Amino acid sequence: MLATALLLLHAVLAVGSLWSASPTFDEVSHLPAGLAIVATGDVWLNPQHPPLVKELAGLAAGTLRPRLPLAGAAYRAGDQWGFGREVLYLAGNDPMALVRAGRLPVVAMSLLAAVVCFVWGRKRYGDVGGLLALALYAGSPTILAHATLVTTDVPATLGMLATFWLWWRATRGTARTEVARATDGADPGGGPPSPPVDLRSSLLPWVLCGVALGVALASKFSALLLPPMMLACDMIANGRRDLRRRLVGYAVTGVAAIVVVQASYLSLAAPLRYLHDTGLVYGTTSRAYLYYLAGAFAPRFPHYFLVATAVKATPAELLAMAGALVAAWLRRERWRDDLYLWLPALGWFAAMSWLAVDIGVRYVLPAWAMLFVLAGALAPELLRRTRLLARPGRLGPALLVALAVTQVGEAAFSFPGYISYANRLAGGRAHLTRWLDDSNVDWGQSFYRLPGWLAQRGIDHARVLPMGSATVPMQASGVRLEGMLASDWGAPRPGAYVISAHQLVRGLERARSGTPTDWLRRYEPTDTFDGSMFLYVFPPPGSTAGGPDAGATMPPRTE
Q: Which of 53, 82, 95, 548 has the fewest CB atoms within 10 Å of its CB?
């Protein structure tokens, strides 16, 4: 009952959030590319990412029968961004209807990932452990942020979770919970490994694992890191025992994964195409681009994802992640089974810190999810240890309930602006630009709701500088929006300005060359919207503050 309620909550929050979120930066290329694949059967646009997520989104959005300019110059030239803008903004389609439909398959994949968290946690740590893992996943604002977008991060999280869960089942060969194994006298993970699945009677666990691996590979190229991690987990936990039979399982898993990848490319040449396209992942990234972290700009920050996690994870998530690793240490006698959680989590985090670009905590979400499951180990440990400290044994359950309720509460109170979430330890979303930029703060998700927000403040005209390709000018809710001019940075005309948090951070970088774009340092904003867009109001010369026409005076910052 509780598990069903948490899954329903996750679905309601995700769908409610996506319904009002305008097309984000990457969706402008991903969704139209998926529509083109469904319409033509040709995986042509956006080769920097595998096609599975785009195809699922394209199938869902394609039910609306959108107009696709497939004969246009942008599509023929392989210009994914130009084609995306044509489909969403120039071809007469309703962009919000398309993105809403296209996002629903990603929500479904996030729900499946939540189910895996619960099932795996329950198998390992009992009912309470499974519920804790599910509450952490279902109530994570950052998970919810990316469960509502046509992007690859949450699908990759599903693929990694399902792969290692099924790999554990296949190589460790147990379907019993830890509680059951403890009560029947078996050593839950510390003694000899559990009997392996008899490959002569069932290849199903290996096939299912291969399908899950194929989903991960067909969602994100970085999933190529999973096979060596899988091999490491199996060899460390099981050694050479029954290696010949396990090698057959390896082959079955690999074949199943290749079939899924090949099917996603709709081509017999898929394996070679897949390997070729992995070289394009960061092909459009400028080597001169400087990334941002905590007020500094640099070509690389080795500690980027540690800081991003500290800022973007909820307090409950930070406690659970730390507690998960502590619980793994306390349960050293069970290390062979827990290895399948903490080794991939730490390995993925380390690999992303080395390989991924420093633009979003979303790259390490698979590691977060693995640690959420491992955090389920806190349940039996707390229940066992606090029973010795508290006479009625209520301290442990109270701590677990507090952790779960706090997590779910963060999700509810952060609705619907999940992308710009930051925990209170980092100052909350109002101060997120002190730490991060890009998809951590603003990906263009708030533009659709902006006119209504301005209308509530009596502003009927504003100049905007959004993130991405949101169209201006536009008229909605009685508010007219027009583009901000480059000259406005140094000599702002009287009136209201709404600027993306990401654009303001990049303004700090451009200001180092002498341009007056450092508004984050120069002016105090009148207000912020979702933590992702900043409102500045400049009154006419000689006027006083007060009223929607005059706005508020803009004193320079003094710190």
A: 548
